[in-house]
């Protein structure tokens, strides 16, 4: 589908559908709404909607459409990326701008059947940091969730003629962890957690790709963190490739997720729990939202 559909206002007049929805706006907030239809034009409940702030790469809100296919959210002013996805259908993405006191017209999006995406061109692809986010979500003292990300990293994807033989390598600067709270970030960098002075990097190296069908893959590999290496599997969705960007270079995109168990990587956190410092829950959700550029002799260097 054309990504511009998210800006299209719905109007069916006599059919009874409305072109906009009135919602109460909190002070200083704006709102947007979307109606999601299946390929037959019927309302689609349960479609996943993820809204990410473009400046911080943090997830601002996420949820599912109601039984009538609607999703509505109020947000602080800013620029956001919206992704709508459902099993067996091609995801839709678009950017939108939220202004205080403004409820955007309800947009109508029709998801199309997932087509077999053409695999990336064989060769080396480099992560584009300004358009890539490495995020995590962890429990905080057993109640609220802490959302964080790493701001410095590098990664490459080597696509082989046989996709199963392809390789991915990612190196993260552990000291670049940020959660929006300086005190907490410094604690995460300390010997109680990541111990960045002794272990400055977090490394992932793939071992094999396993195709699950359609655009779904499992990426098997090893993750080295805090001096410990463990096997991990990333649930990966390939989002396709396109010519576009700074110099219309060839790009591909993928979304990968994994659940990590903190006790697999460090004994210090166990010690903290024994002392009654229950700062982080037993599992951490990791998400890599990757956009990579095909490497050629004249591939431009992304701006910082």
From TrEMBL:
Gene3D superfamilies, from UniProt? Answer: Carboxypeptidase-like, regulatory domain, Lipid/polyisoprenoid-binding, YceI-like
Q: Which Pfam families match?
A: CarboxypepD_reg, YceI
**Residue ranges constituting the Lipid/polyisoprenoid-binding YceI-like domain according to the UniProt record:** 124-293
InterPro entries noted in UniProt? CarboxyPept-like_regulatory, Lipid/polyisoprenoid-bd_YceI, TTHA0802/YceI-like_sf
Q: Which SMART domains match?
A: YceI
Q: What family is this?
A: Belongs to the UPF0312 family.
**Name of the protein this chain belongs to:** YceI family protein
Question: Which species does this protein come from?
Answer: Streptomyces nogalater
């Amino acid at each position: 589908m054309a990504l511009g559909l998210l800006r299209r206002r719905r109007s069916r007049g006599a059919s009874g559908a409305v072109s906009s929805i009135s919602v109460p706006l909190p002070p200083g907030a704006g709102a947007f709404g979307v109606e999601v239809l299946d390929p037959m034009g019927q309302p689609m409940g349960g479609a996943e909607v993820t809204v990410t702030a473009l400046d911080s790469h943090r997830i601002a809100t996420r949820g599912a459409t109601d039984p009538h296919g609607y999703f509505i959210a109020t947000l602080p002013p800013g620029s956001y990326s919206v992704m709508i996805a459902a099993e067996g259908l091609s995801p839709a993405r678009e950017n939108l701008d939220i202004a205080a006191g403004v409820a955007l017209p309800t947009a109508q999006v029709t998801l199309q059947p997932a087509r077999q995406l053409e695999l990336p061109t064989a060769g080396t692809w480099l992560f584009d940091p300004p358009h890539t986010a490495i995020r995590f979500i962890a429990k905080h003292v057993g109640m609220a969730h802490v959302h964080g990300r790493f701001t410095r990293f590098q990664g490459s994807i080597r696509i082989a003629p046989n996709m199963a033989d392809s390789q991915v390598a990612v190196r993260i600067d552990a000291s670049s962890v940020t959660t929006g709270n300086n005190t907490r970030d410094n604690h995460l960098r300390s010997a109680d957690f990541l111990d960045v002075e002794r272990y400055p990097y977090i490394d992932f190296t793939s071992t094999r790709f396993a195709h699950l069908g359609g655009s779904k893959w499992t990426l098997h590999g090893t993750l080295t963190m805090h001096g410990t290496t463990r096997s991990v599997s990333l649930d990966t969705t390939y989002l396709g490739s396109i010519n576009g960007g700074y110099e219309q270079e060839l790009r591909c995109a993928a979304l990968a997720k994994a659940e990590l168990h903190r006790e697999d990587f460090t004994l210090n956190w166990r010690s903290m729990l024994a002392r009654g410092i229950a700062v982080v829950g037993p599992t951490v959700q990791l998400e890599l939202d990757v956009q990579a550029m095909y490497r050629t002799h004249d591939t431009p260097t992304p701006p910082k």
